[in-house]
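Researcher: Next entry in the queue.
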Amino acid sequence: MAISTSDDMTATSRVPAGPPPRFDTPLVPRNSISGRALIAVVAIMTFLASLTTGAVMLVAGAASEWQSDVAREVTIQIVPAPGRDLDAAADKAAAAARAFPGIGDVRVYSKAESSKLLEPWLGSGLTLDELPVPRLIVVKIARGATPDIPQLRRLLAEQVPGAALDDHRGWIDRMRAMAGTAVAAGVAILLLVIAATMLSVTFATRGAMATNKPVIEVLHFVGAKNGFIAGRFQRHFLLLGLQGGAIGGGGAVVLFALAALISRWFAATPGAEQTSALFGSFSIGIAGYVAVLGQILLIALVTAATSRHTVNRTLGTID
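Model: Structure for this entry, 319 residues:
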């Protein structure tokens, strides 16, 4: 019995054609060694940037508190002189300061208290009766008041011979300069971290492109747009940046939280009081944690943008 070739062809033509094969392999490997190394680099950079930002915020906050405390106090010194009654002169200067508008509190230091202030430099157990130790009067400015300090200085000079008023302006200027220097150093370190991250991402992107160069060239020559190829790399490195940033930023957040907790535990010790006077409570507050979160996003965006720029430049060199 003869078999009809036309029937076979018809039967064959009736077989439904399946969908074209799909290749789900990503253009950029997700779990490559270079990708894991880049995550580690980004995590380290984000950790350092977050530590720098937190330290700058702590120093700036402490400096602001110092300036506020120092600015609310002025000191009157009564210089000893032959025939001058220091106790009477101190009482007269204190009375003039109390009557001056804008002054909240006035405290006269006794001779023993004034001498005790010199112990950190001269040591204890010394007899300072022969030394011309000035008598000190601490004047606190009322909250919200702005007294005329030059007028108070002239008033004291007229009424109390030997009285000198110090408004601590030099200390305030030094604190302001120190805080500005700390902020500038923090910004410089942050810029260096971002630059190092960009360099690392650039090398990692070029390495990934070199590994997949044949595939990229084929896609380029068959008509794939540069934006399509660059978008794959950008998405890949954005995820790497987010992973590394979350690890580094999360580590910095945990470190600051532990530091704040430890400072509260040892708050009653003398060393903790001195440290708290210098750096505050080691708590960066809500603003600090928001800044760390912003740095994580910034590092991730820088990673993605650097990768896209590198891919576009490399593709531009392909004929």
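Model: Residues 1-24 have pLDDT under 50 and may be disordered.
Researcher: Noted, moving on.
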